[in-house]
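Human: We require from you a standard protein entry with sequence in single-letter code and fold as tokens, and nothing else.

Assistant:
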Amino acid sequence: MSKLRSDSDEEAQVFETAIIDKSPRWQDNLADSSPFVMGAVATTLLTISFGMLNFRDVTLQAPVFVADLCFAAGAGLIISAQWEMLKGNTFSYTVLMAFGFFYAGYGYVTIPSTGIADFYGGTSTPSFNNALGAYVLVWACFNFFFLLCTTRMNITYVGVFSFVELCLIFDAASYFASAEGKIELGVHFMKASGAFAFAASILCYYTVLHYLCEDALPFRVPLGDLTRYKYAHKRKA
């Protein structure tokens, strides 16, 4: 009886393997969107950091930032997220969709013709600064969950999401300080936010180099793999 059961189990396993092997693997033929995604985020963060740091008298409310916010980082990330969905990468899909809409929404607010700032009476009013500060702070909370997940991925991603988290926190603090009339303190917070955005952009460009080296160059650029700790934890469990 056990012999029959063993033969039956073996046949079932062979049949299951055959079915799996014959399943279409068209996902493997999809291009990796990671280099573009990290490049778009890096370019957007670097551009924004110039405005936050008041580089060459550029301000954060400059309409030219809309190009990066709404298109490169906004539409670009949202479109790239669909690749990750087809591949079944839940984390990547969630991050790209979230930040795609965040950047697009942030860029939309800065467009004068939308009338959003006029609704609050201008960009210097307490109500506008409080609203924008709350908007950024909530996204800092959302980003914190992403940061936790990266602790089992690689050191570079931990650095990127840590700097982005600090960027968002100080950005929100800047708006809240401006809303309370503490303009000088708000400027200091904004510059601190810009410094963290600049640091995050450099790490993002480093990640772009990593992915491009994997695909086109004969050498590798390490990201600081942390997945071995994840698997070690599973083995202990």
Notes: Confidence is low (pLDDT under 50) at residues 1-8, 14-23. The radius of gyration is 23 Å. Residues 33-232 form one domain.
